[in-house]
Inverse folding.
């Protein structure tokens, strides 16, 4: 018998019989207990922090803004967990690896509370649900541990079937309100049946664990990356078999501290002030709509952070006076216990002035520099991987060395951990054999961690602790204990939520006014009022003069002087209305209309010309009327002309005052 025939015969003997009947529906999940009462005081679950330069020139320029969403450190109130453990039980899992996986599952079972639910799915050539979603009560924990102990290895590796079954358990459950659904998928090999890349997990986070040097790290990362918030973990258990419990404990520590779900951040630029060049949110999905750019994060653990780099292009406002510019608005949304919450809108404000940017004074804040450096650090790891995958390890190492040098100029608490990460990768990029066995999966898990801003195991859960939370540190120590030692189920004591912090407003330089208005002198309201008065007076002047008509030869239309006065007042009325409307727009929307120096010159010129025409027309009409009265005496016709001349003269005064304001506006910009 040939070797291939022997292998096929061995597989058939160890595979379960084929069953073409459709699987039963997974709607038999156990009803969870009522939710725990909330904290006595309202809890601020998420805090938005903005980091950016406080100053920028009026000339066009680019600005980087870091928006940080930080989860509350208190877990007195968290989302109950619906967890499905999808476990590889194929033939390659035999021996110590299967035993270590069982131990890790027992740790998970013991750490869950009666408000959490667990289901176990196993897969080899086929997939099967070991148990329905059950509440992790003390009685259920004993049953679950007994089911785990009975698991044995056999068959090939069909990751697709295991993942689809796990998703079906979650999608078909009856009780979903406010519950956080997650999958932990573990395997030690590459798929040889089906293709798990074709499975769409939707919004269910899938956290994958690749055991040893034989697993397909690219596949496991692709599965996690396709889900919302899932991460790939490299478990190097070839040298340290007990590391499985430690690695599982880190992901579980996050899952049992989920404080918000469906978290998303929306950034909207004020189009007259700035446009968005780029939004860097790692591998989290983004969407663009009329209300701005929205980033979807999914779940957020207690004390976790999500940082987004927004690159803004500020518009050219060199014709403006220095002013505080609202360049963008930000808000976030999330759900908890089935309810939707939306934050208040916060503004990103930058003071813009004529001062040329100084490299030292106007440098981005340290937080912005550190986040930009971390993203470049991740890009360097990706570039080094691409070189190493093409068997160019020397260039790959050179890229990592240059990334190390770039960190020398930074002073940030995370920098030491980034250096440690690069030193470890340099060791794993020494030879092709080491790279394929450990280097590639370690680099992929590093990229997954930086892209998701979430802890991942890079071979060893203790080595690189970037993005680890305090709860993860606690669980790590507990996972190192012997399997027969008791482990507390819930580490949440009678915590009181942190009081909502008093957030200080964004700082404005002390040597400048707090919020000067752009584009105009502080008398813009007075200017608008004078424009309106001039329009009303001119309207009254030409209306009264035009109504001074008789049936005889002394009609106002018969005299060129009066026709000239009526025409000038009509022009002044129309001009004043246009200017008043423009002033009102600028009062309501302070930066809705960009004005150049030439527009101020034009306003001053028209104000002066029309003021001259108005006073000359009023004087001519007054002289003509005085001459008529001196010869023929007063009558009703003369009185109307006299009243119209007075309104025209008052309109001249209002227009002259506006000419002075236009002159002040122009000279303030020269």
């Amino acid at each position: 018998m040939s070797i291939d025939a022997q292998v096929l015969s061995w597989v058939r003997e160890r595979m379960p019989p084929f069953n073409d009947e459709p699987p039963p529906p997974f709607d038999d999940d156990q009803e969870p207990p009522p939710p725990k009462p909330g904290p006595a005081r309202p809890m601020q679950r998420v805090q938005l922090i903005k980091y950016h330069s406080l100053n920028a020139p009026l000339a066009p320029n680019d600005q980087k803004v870091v928006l940080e969403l930080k989860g509350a450190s208190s877990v007195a109130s968290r989302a109950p967990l619906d967890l499905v453990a999808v476990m590889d039980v194929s033939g390659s899992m035999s021996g110590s690896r299967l035993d270590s996986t069982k131990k890790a599952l027992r740790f998970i079972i013991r750490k869950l509370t009666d408000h959490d639910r667990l289901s176990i799915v196993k897969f080899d050539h086929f997939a099967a649900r070991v148990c329905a979603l059950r509440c992790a009560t003390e009685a259920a924990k004993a049953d679950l541990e007994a089911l785990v102990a009975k698991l044995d290895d056999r068959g090939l590796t069909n990751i697709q079937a295991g993942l689809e079954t796990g998703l079906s358990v979650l999608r078909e459950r009856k009780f979903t309100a406010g519950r956080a659904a997650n999958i932990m998928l573990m395997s030690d090999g590459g798929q040889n049946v089906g293709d798990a890349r074709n499975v769409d997990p939707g919004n269910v986070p899938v956290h994958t664990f690749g055991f040893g040097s034989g697993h397909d790290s690219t596949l496991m990362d692709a599965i996690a990356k396709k889900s919302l918030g899932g991460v790939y973990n490299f478990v190097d258990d070839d040298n340290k078999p007990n590391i499985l419990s430690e690695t599982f404990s880190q992901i579980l520590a996050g899952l049992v501290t989920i404080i918000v779900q469906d978290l998303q951040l929306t950034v909207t630029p004020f189009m007259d002030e700035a446009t968005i060049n780029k939004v860097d949110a790692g591998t989290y999905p983004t969407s663009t709509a009329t209300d701005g750019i929205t980033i979807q994060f999914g779940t957020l653990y207690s004390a976790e952070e999500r940082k987004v780099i927004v690159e803004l292009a500020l518009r050219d406002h060199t014709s403006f006076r220095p002013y505080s510019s609202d360049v963008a608005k930000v808000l976030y949304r999330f759900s908890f216990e089935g309810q939707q919450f939306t934050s208040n809108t916060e503004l990103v404000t930058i003071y813009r002035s004529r001062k040329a940017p100084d490299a030292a004074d106007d440098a981005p804040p340290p937080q912005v520099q550190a986040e930009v450096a971390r993203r470049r650090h991740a890009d360097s790891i990706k570039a080094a991987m691409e070189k190493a995958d093409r068997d160019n390890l020397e260039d790959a190492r050179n890229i990592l060395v240059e990334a190390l040098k770039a960190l020398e100029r930074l002073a940030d608490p995370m920098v030491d951990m980034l250096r440690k990460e690069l030193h470890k990768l340099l060791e794993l990029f020494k030879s092709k054999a080491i790279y394929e066995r450990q280097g590639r999966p370690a680099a992929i898990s590093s990229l997954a961690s930086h892209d998701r801003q979430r802890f991942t195991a890079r071979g060893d859960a203790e080595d690189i602790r970037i993005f680890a939370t305090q709860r993860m540190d606690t669980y790590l120590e507990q996972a190192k204990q012997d399997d027969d030692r008791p482990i507390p189920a819930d580490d949440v004591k009678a915590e009181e939520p942190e009081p909502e912090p008093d957030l200080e407003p964004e700082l404005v330089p002390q040597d400048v006014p707090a919020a000067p208005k752009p584009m105009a002198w502080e008398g813009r309201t007075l200017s608008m009022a004078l424009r309106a008065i001039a329009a009303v007076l001119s309207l009254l002047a030409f209306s009264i003069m035009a109504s001074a008509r008789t049936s005889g030869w002394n009609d106002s239309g018969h005299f060129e002087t009066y026709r000239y006065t009526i025409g000038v007042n009509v022009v002044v009325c129309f001009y004043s209305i246009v200017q008043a409307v423009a002033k009102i727009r600028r009062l309501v929307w302070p930066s809705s209309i960009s004005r150049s120096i030439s527009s101020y010159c034009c306003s001053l010129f028209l104000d002066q010309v029309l003021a001259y025409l108005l006073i000359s027309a009023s004087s001519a009409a007054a002289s003509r009327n005085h001459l008529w009265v001196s010869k023929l005496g007063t009558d009703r016709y003369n009185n109307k002309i006299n009243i119209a001349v007075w309104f025209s003269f008052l309109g001249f005064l209002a227009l002259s005052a506006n000419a002075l304001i236009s002159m002040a506006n122009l000279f303030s910009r020269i």
In short: Residues 1-8, 493-522 have pLDDT under 50 and may be disordered. The two ends are 97 Å apart (CA to CA).
